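Student:
Attend to each token:
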Amino acid sequence: MSNMSYCRFQNTSGDLQDCLEVMQELIYNWERLSQKELSAMHNMKLIAEEFLELYDDLEELKKRHNDEEFIRMLVN
């Protein structure tokens, strides 16, 4: 199920934190994942790399505008 636009980053942030905790368990407790979960984890890595690139682009855009103007551009 997809997230509602008004809370997608809030919801996804919590889900990502949960995934990080599972990954820590994988390192320290040698737990196993299904092939589908392993594939999804790899896909998340690719998505996260793109997210970081786009986040950096937004940071550059923010530098070109004052904070108030930048917030107005992003907030409904």
